[in-house]
Automatic annotation (TrEMBL):
GO terms for cellular component: cytoplasm. The gene is Capn10. It comes from Mesocricetus auratus (Golden hamster). GO terms for biological process: proteolysis. Gene3D superfamilies: 2.60.120.380, Cysteine proteinases. The keyword Transmembrane does not apply. This is Calpain-10 isoform X2. Belongs to the peptidase C2 family. Keywords: Hydrolase, Protease, Thiol protease. The active site is at C138, H303, N328. Residues 78-382 form the Calpain catalytic domain. CDD domains: Calpain_III (cd00214), CysPc (cd00044). It comes from the Eukaryota. The lineage of its organism: Eukaryota, Metazoa, Chordata, Craniata, Vertebrata.
Length: 647
């Protein structure tokens, strides 16, 4: 996107970085599927790094006192992350973004080389608020604001108790935790951060001597491969990575406005701005502009904002007015609407309310009325609240979804990549049994693994053209999810799948994760994730959250052409995995030759009743890190309990 130089943050204006050099021009960039950042000023390539840094003596009034690089050498050797070094390989992927113009000027400094007294978190929460720099990762920074709403979420991502710069045990590294494909992954980084003219050039906090945000940004960049990989993305994806929960994207065309009218397909969830009023204190709410309007070009395009607050007021005539307080990660008040400071909108309310609400505005914030909001913004992203126990809370009923199950799956060409319901091979898709033991509110989600991870691609050499698979819009397939109610004892796939599902996504979407919400009665259900196109490979994680007790298992179809010793009867197979262990003195009873045999683990299972035979195949797998020659001889026996509960 492009903007006038006067709209850029003060430290990005040509007068600061270029010292008013002639020939500076705007760079316009956009991504069809991601949110990035404002336009950047291209600088003259004839200027040396020394000349560039010499212009860095102009500081904002609140900027921290600087310390010259090399003025003080640490008394001990500090950690240097060889896996994510302080070099171009960590900054760039293929030099395809405007960030490449600063390649020769970026240096790496530790926080104690940037300011005199660095700190991890501030005493005043506002001083730790997010502020965007050169990198187009507004989508990630908006998600980071969710951590500031909940201390237990922040502690989960940034484990407390880590030694920082004033501690004797400080060694120059920090550890963050990022949720990736069903697991919390520890990410350790050194604290060398990219700088321009001695100041942080990417994300930073309102107080520039607070460093939790740039350190977390570096950890997230390490997970993705480079800082440049963070250029453009979806707020919903970052929210999931930082909380492990779900996130919903609402098109503002589907929102019920003050008039009560709604332009949306029938049968969907009714969504209103009043819902946002109820949710504002429980979860992060972000809004996005995907294309500029004629009357509000100052909002930019492909840019994400944070909804800091919502307030309902009454006008002098007794009409209700809903105001939204918007925080721009750029750190400036770009809004010129009716409710700007001194705007005509404030004439509708009491002057005391005007003074109260304007006094709440911090740097980069502005008020917008509901009608303006629905007209000028395109999308809202809402993260599901997460309790201290780690359970999701429904956006619609506020019920706690305290029962969670997750299973991985894959679409394999020629086997289980059946495509959408328009294809005759749709029944070949992966299928899962979902059993509900009580009436429940259920959220089911399909999370794709990025295709570049599947292909095992490595980062391209600097300057090389990107492969199509590495473009953000090419990482994911269009996927959908459908659920059918079934009778477990009698399943005819053609008949079941030809009937309308009880729940399903509205369409197949090119999103990393799609999900649906529904109210289900007790019983068995067949869950089928699918891609829109057939014979498209991919891996996914199926997650189910429920207010009631549930069980989830994969349905396996017998493989044709297996060897005679392993051939299985044709039909649908339910697979259940049970885990156990032998503990010395407790459950390591030995074989049936020993009196201690009954101490061994007992794993109960049941066989459904009904006409015809039931085929069961049981495999006991020994998990051991020893070599094959040191594995223990193992075996198992099957007993049918008597009516008295004994074997």
């Amino acid at each position: 996107m492009s903007h006038d130089p006067s709209e850029a943050p003060s430290w990005l204006q040509p007068g600061y970085l270029d010292n008013g050099a002639c020939g500076a021009r705007r760079v316009s960039t956009s991504r069809s599927r991601g949110l990035s950042c404002p336009g950047l000023q291209r600088r003259s390539r004839t200027r040396s790094r020394a000349a560039t840094e010499s212009t860095g003596s102009r500081w904002e009034p609140r900027a921290p006192k600087m310390r010259a690089v090399g003025a003080e050498t640490p008394a001990r050797e500090l950690f240097q992350d060889a896996a994510f070094p302080a070099s171009d390989s960590s900054l760039f992927f293929n030099l395809s973004t405007p960030l490449a113009q600063f390649r020769e000027d970026i240096t790496w400094r530790r926080p104690q080389e940037i300011c005199a007294t660095p700190q991890l978190f501030p005493d005043n929460p506002w001083e730790g608020q997010v502020k965007q720099g050169l990198l187009g990762d507004c989508w990630f920074l908006c998600a980071c604001a969710a951590l500031q709403k909940s201390q237990h979420l922040l502690d989960q991502v940034f484990p407390p108790g880590q030694p920082s710069w004033s501690d004797q045990k400080y060694q120059g590294f920090f550890t963050c935790r990022i949720w990736q494909f069903g697991h919390w992954e520890k990410v350790t980084i050194d604290d060398r951060l990219p700088c321009l003219a001695g100041r942080l050039c990417f994300s930073r906090c309102q107080r520039e001597d607070v460093f939790w945000l740039p350190l977390l940004e570096k950890a997230y960049a390490k997970v993705h491969g480079s800082y440049e990989h963070l250029w453009a993305g979806q707020v919903a994806d970052a929210l999931v990575d930082l909380t492990g929960s779900l996130a919903e994207r609402w098109s503002l065309k589907d929102i019920v406005g003050a008039s009560g009218q709604q332009d949306r397909p029938s049968g969907g969830e009714q969504r209103t701005c009043r819902q946002l009023l109820r949710l504002k204190d429980q979860c992060l709410i972000s809004c996005s502009v995907l294309s500029p309007r004629a009357g509000a070009r100052e909002l930019g395009e492909f840019h994400a904002f944070i909804i800091s607050d919502l307030r309902e007021l009454w006008s002098r005539t007794g009409q209700g007015i809903l105001l939204l307080r918007i925080h721009n990660p750029w750190g400036r008040r770009c809004w010129q609407g009716l409710w700007r400071e001194g705007g005509e909108g404030w004439n509708q309310v009491d002057p005391s309310k005007e003074s109260e609400l304007l006094a709440q505005l911090q740097e980069g914030e502005f008020w917008v009325e509901e009608e303006e909001f629905l007209r000028e913004f395109d999308e809202v992203t809402i993260g599901y609240p997460v309790t201290k126990a780690g359970h999701l809370q429904s956006l619609y009923t506020e019920k706690v979804l305290c029962h969670t199950r997750a299973l991985p799956g894959a679409w394999v060409i020629g086997q289980s990549a059946g495509g959408c319901r328009n294809n005759s091979c749709f029944p070949c898709n992966p299928k899962f049994w979902l059993r509900l033991l009580e009436p429940s509110e259920v959220c089911a989600a399909v999370l794709q693994r990025p295709r570049r991870c599947l292909l095992g691609q490595t980062r391209s050499l600097l300057g090389a053209s990107p492969a199509p698979e590495n473009l953000p819009s090419k990482d994911y397939q269009a996927v959908g999810l459908h659920i059918w109610k079934v009778e477990k004892r009698k399943v005819s796939l053609p008949r079941v799948l030809s009937a309308p599902p009880v729940a399903g996504t509205a369409c197949h979407a090119y999103d990393r994760e799609v999900h649906l919400r529904c109210e289900l009665s007790p019983g068995y259900y067949l869950v089928v994730p699918s891609t829109f196109l057939k014979d498209v490979p991919g891996q996914f994680l199926l997650r189910v959250f429920s207010t009631g007790k549930i069980s989830l298992s994969a349905v396996r179809t017998a493989t044709k052409g297996a060897s005679p010793g392993t051939a299985l009867p044709a039909g649908e197979w339910e697979t259940v995995q049970l885990r156990g262990c032998w503990r010395a003195g407790q459950t390591a009873g030995g074989s049936r030759n020993f009196a201690s045999y009954p101490c061994n683990p007992c794993l109960p299972f049941s066989v459904p009743e009904g006409a015809g035979p039931r085929y069961i195949r049981i495999t006991l797998h020994q998990h051991c890190r020893l070599s094959d020659s040191q594995l223990h001889p193992i075996g198992f026996h099957i007993f049918q309990p008597t009516g008295q509960g004994t074997l």
